[in-house]
């Protein structure tokens, strides 16, 4: 495979195509750990869990009793009162995270960037499932005349990117990724490419999910993939031999990607640079990863080649780390296969141990954790790792955050259907 070769400080080339460097200038998040970047990051580095009793619905007859819910979220802070009934929670979370990220980047559309040169690309695994369930109940109770006029537009997956675009006036690239739990990471990667191709100067990218509903949770219960641990704080335990499944989470993560030239021109604060992205398929099974994490190996390999760096450059890996037997062992095997003798030397952590599995929002939120690790020199921990699985024997930064100079981070996101996405972020080198 041809890889990017750095020609000068600002431009890369691939097959003669001129490609622009892309940096990250803003971050925003709504998560089980907090409704802002500061709250979320402080909770993460202090090893605080966002998991608690499931309260969104009566779960008496469900095997799952715990969830990582967003708490005390106020949509009124981000949307007019008379418009709030038109959006599902997954789109509302996306709007809030995007507005926070745009504010963090200090971007004014029309002043710092033309509306036609700023785009939106959001991912989700499921979309407006809460609105779907509500509409179905209304239909059963009173027929189609009992349906709300916006029953369709609250459900469809593109409403996160659409509502963000409408809310802020972004008139450029507008797209939606649906790649199961790799959706948010993929949206970031595709936004990166959109800027490199010259289609936009700035992109708002991320992922959003709000699937803690009877159908959403019930489906995972039926699959046997969800934790039944009665202690919410201990329920999610990636790489631990006593893990018994994932914990469903919700929320949104949004990042502002910007061409290097645009960021320099407006003297923007920069969190880091995105230098690598790859996405590949297993072509194996709809829920189980390929043997030995073969797809994850190729995803990491291609992302590193794309970034034109050596494997020795990776200072930290933010793992997909779902707290399921198949994923944890498969991802560990993939890291060992790709990094070989280096694997045991690289700190790895699963922040899902604190956020739960935020599904389509997971990859985006974990990209934010990756960038904050670069900025602060603090690696968030994998909490609840008390009895490591013998097959998971790498350095997972157990239970306590770690101070370390971090210049380059690799972040994995994998999803049902055999999707494997890897992002690589790096501190900016002038």
UniProtKB/TrEMBL annotation:
Lineage: Bacteria, Bacillati, Bacillota, Bacilli, Bacillales
GO biological process, one term: fatty acid elongation
Enzyme active site: 181
Keywords: Acyltransferase, Fatty acid biosynthesis, Fatty acid metabolism, Lipid biosynthesis, Lipid metabolism, Transferase
SMART domains, sorted: PKS_KS
Sequence similarity: Belongs to the thiolase-like superfamily. Beta-ketoacyl-ACP synthases family.
Recorded catalytic activity of this chain's protein: a fatty acyl-[ACP] + malonyl-[ACP] + H(+) = a 3-oxoacyl-[ACP] + holo-[ACP] + CO2; (9Z)-hexadecenoyl-[ACP] + malonyl-[ACP] + H(+) = 3-oxo-(11Z)-octadecenoyl-[ACP] + holo-[ACP] + CO2
Source organism of this protein record: Bacillus oleivorans
Domain Ketosynthase family 3 (KS3): 19-427
InterPro entries named in the record: 3-oxoacyl-ACP_synth-2, Beta-ketoacyl_synthase, Ketoacyl_synth_C, Ketoacyl_synth_N, PKS_Beta-ketoAc_synthase_dom, Thiolase-like
Protein name: 3-oxoacyl-[acyl-carrier-protein] synthase 2
Gene Ontology CC annotations of this record: cytosol
The protein's enzyme class: transferase
GO molecular function: 3-oxoacyl-[acyl-carrier-protein] synthase activity
UniProt-listed CDD domains: KAS_I_II
UniProt entry tagged with the keyword Electron transport: no
EC number(s) stated in the UniProt entry for this protein: 2.3.1.179
Gene3D superfamilies: 3.40.47.10
Coiled-coil boundaries: none
Lineage: superkingdom: Bacteria
Function as written in the Swiss-Prot or TrEMBL entry: Involved in the type II fatty acid elongation cycle. Catalyzes the elongation of a wide range of acyl-ACP by the addition of two carbons from malonyl-ACP to an acyl acceptor. Can efficiently catalyze the conversion of palmitoleoyl-ACP (cis-hexadec-9-enoyl-ACP) to cis-vaccenoyl-ACP (cis-octadec-11-enoyl-ACP), an essential step in the thermal regulation of fatty acid composition.
